[in-house]
From TrEMBL:
Cited PROSITE patterns: PKD
Record organism: Fontibacter flavus
SMART domains: PKD (SM00089)
Name this protein carries in UniProt: PKD domain-containing protein
CDD domains to which the protein is assigned, alphabetical: PKD (cd00146)
Length: 681
């Protein structure tokens, strides 16, 4: 079986970090080195995993753990699988300055069990590979080297430029070899006399010259005695580092690489240009001697896709939307591929505001885009933040033309050698992704006036109604955006009272609270049920601090939680007792983020049989019950950083204004929380 390790964020932690900020002082004088003292002790897991505790309490306490890892806080944990002596340094800060204290930590023996980790084994070949594992640049593959924006905009891949196979021959990039050994974390760097470097780094390499393939090459010989290290931290890609003066593939000023993907026969790395931090470089490596499967030759363009104008417009007008599934929205090196992003993942839950958009084609040649009140905003549009947000945020921006509106379209039937084509025309006309056009992407708005964008119909299933569109943004057939649309189901009525964004925000700002009465707060085996708890009982008298909470939604996408000074505390929050108590009891606990605060929200309108949804986003963002999230409940704080929680509108009565929200915490439809809200006024 092929061993694969893919990183979207954190997998097996190599460095465990946590901090506890207790009472601190901002003194007028700088602390002394004695005040920066600390103690340490082994953990129950291993003598090679140490917990460090600062002696004092300061505004900021930073640690260099001597093993390549950094940390902050009063208490942190360091991971030391190999025997040796490590110098650990604590630096403390007060209003008057800072000071540091260092001490040597002796690890008496190597703990082999700590070395037997998937990420280590994939990189080095494991303990049985005495000579390590040697990697080389995958020179035969499109995109083995390239560059994209920093921060990434559509996933971690070389969005702006991808090298063709063997494009950098003669630079030294393809002759270098990189061997990683598990024993003593040794790294062998074989340059074969020549390395490839960014032009901005030329002054640091005597004898650098133009190899004729862009940038510079330089004569370099490895000094030997090099090492490697991997640091993993929560919420981030693992970082692979190699010691000075070595580097991997292409030198852009740094020696640390984010591991985007690590597989048995592939390593895909990302690193930021140190001379221009708006650029992120990418390299793809394979084990030396590995012969990757030959990419199949593209089929001749003889698609013969059976799709007609009648299929597009139906009986006069037909409305389409993105299919909420993996593969429905993505970018890759070929039509229909999403290998660059999101690489097989279903992102409909992350971007609900994208999957509720409607695209209507009329037989009279008009085309209408309806954002359903919200958009997935990106900086190129001119909005202040990225992510789901009210469509009104486009007003007054450079991207205002990408808002809901009417345009024109034409349809070109397919032939045995040409795909059918849909062309939308108008300032800001697009299907699914505003920034994508034939041969490129907008880096910033506004869109060009009266622009036409053409999409190839690369597939159509008349039975399911699935329509596959593709657009080449590279101009040379190397990068394609791909979308799968389905009929929206028209304007069918749903049993939610046609709840709209304006109902939620009252066309401005609206505060909601729990309805006082039985059935307003409960959990059961189905939406709307409270048979698990409290089983038909009215608990508003027992928990008044819960029923006075305010949940405030503003049309600009702001969401505020106001506890009204008290909370219903539970042990998972870190409070000392359970029950109604002052909100201030959350201060200093792991659940502090669940206190009153400001977050963001997005709204997904009803469409077809899909009910409206409200998504709140932010560290500690919730409606009614802090511990409940999609697919589970917190057993202890703190909440995950910048988490989104989506609530379905189960029912809405426009006369009484009662709004019923439900949340599946089981992920299989077996356990649901139900809340009935009413306007606070």
């Amino acid at each position: 079986m092929k061993n694969i390790l893919k990183f979207a964020a954190l997998l097996m932690p190599v460095i465990l970090l946590w901090s506890c900020i207790e009472e601190y002082r901002l003194e007028g004088e700088a602390p002394t080195s004695d005040q920066a003292g600390f103690s340490f002790q082994p953990t129950s897991e291993s003598d090679n995993i140490l917990q460090f505790t600062a002696d004092g309490d300061f505004f900021l306490m930073t640690w260099d753990l001597g093993n390549g890892a950094k940390a902050e806080g009063k208490r942190v944990t360091g991971f030391y699988p190999l025997e040796g002596t490590y110098t650990v340094t604590l630096t403390v800060y007060s209003r008057g300055g800072s000071n540091s204290f260092s001490r040597e930590i002796v690890i008496e023996r190597t703990d082999p069990t700590l070395l037997d980790r998937p990420i280590f084994n994939m990189l080095t070949g494991g303990v049985e590979a005495l000579e390590g594992k040697t990697w080389v640049i995958d020179s035969l593959r499109l995109g083995h080297f390239g560059v994209g924006p920093n921060p990434s905009q559509n996933g971690d891949f070389p969005e702006w430029y991808q090298a063709q196979p063997k494009e950098k021959t003669g630079s030294g990039m393809y002759t270098d070899r990189y061997t990683f050994k598990l024993r003593d974390f040794e790294f062998d760097w074989e340059t074969n006399g020549l390395v490839y470097i960014n032009a901005a780094q030329g002054a640091n390499f005597p004898g650098a010259f133009d190899p004729g393939v862009g940038d510079l090459s330089a004569p370099v010989t490895s000094p030997g005695n090099l090492t490697w290290n991997i640091v993993e931290e929560p919420g981030a890609l693992p970082v692979l580092s190699v010691s000075t003066p070595s580097f991997l593939g292409y030198f852009a000023g740094g020696r640390s690489y984010q591991i985007v993907r690590l597989e048995e026969n592939e390593m895909f790395l990302r690193f930021v240009d140190q001379a221009n931090d708006a650029l992120a470089w990418y390299i793809r490596l394979i084990p030396a001697g590995f012969a990757p499967p030959v990419d199949p030759q593209p089929e001749p363009e003889n698609p013969n896709v059976s799709f007609s104008l009648n299929d597009l417009v139906g009986n006069g007008e037909k409305t389409w939307k993105l299919k909420p599934a993996a593969g429905a929205f993505g970018v890759g090196p070929a039509p229909g591929s999403d290998a660059f992003f999101p690489n097989g993942n279903d992102i409909s839950g992350d971007r609900p505001c994208l999957f509720n958009d409607l695209y209507a084609f009329n037989s009279n040649g008009t085309y209408t885009y309806d954002a359903q009140g919200d958009i997935f905003g990106e900086f190129y549009m001119g909005v202040a933040s990225e992510g789901c947000q009210p469509e009104s945020n486009l007003v007054g921006t450079a991207g205002a033309a990408w808002a809901s509106g009417q345009h024109q379209f034409t349809f070109t039937p397919g032939t045995p050698t040409e795909f059918p084509k849909i062309t939308v025309t108008g300032t800001g006309a697009f299907i699914v992704l505003p920034k994508a056009f034939n041969g490129g992407e907008y880096q910033q708005g506004p869109p060009r006036a009266n622009e036409s964008v053409t999409y190839n119909v690369i597939g159509y299933d008349a039975a399911t109604g699935e329509l596959d569109l593709s657009i080449d943004i590279s101009g040379d057939g190397s990068v394609f955006w791909n979308f799968t649309l389905i009929p929206s189901g028209g304007n069918e009525e749903v049993s939610d009272g046609s709840f709209r964004l304006q109902d939620l925000t009252n066309n401005g700002t609206q505060a909601w609270k729990l309805k006082v009465g039985a059935g307003a707060f409960g959990v059961g085996p189905a939406p709307g049920s409270d048979s698990f708890f409290p089983n038909g009982n009215d608990i508003s008298g027992d928990r008044p601090c819960l029923f006075n909470d305010l949940f405030i939604f503003s049309q600009n996408g702001d969401f505020e939680y106001d506890a009204q000074g008290d909370i219903f505390g539970e042990s998972y929050m870190g409070v000392a007792t359970e029950g109604c108590q002052p909100e201030s009891n959350l201060t200093g606990t792991p659940g502090a983020a669940w206190a009153s605060g400001n977050h963001r929200f997005s709204f997904q309108s009803a469409s077809g049989n899909a009910k409206p949804k409200i998504t709140v986003t932010g560290t500690g963002a919730f409606i009614v019950l802090p511990k409940a999230f999609n697919g589970g409940e917190y057993q202890q704080g703190p909440p995950r950083d910048n988490e989104s929680v989506t609530y379905e509108v189960f029912d809405y009565d426009p006369e009484t204004k009662e709004l019923t929200l439900v949340l599946d915490i089981s992920n299989d439809g077996g356990v649901w929380w139900t809340f009935v809200l009413i306007p606070a006024n």
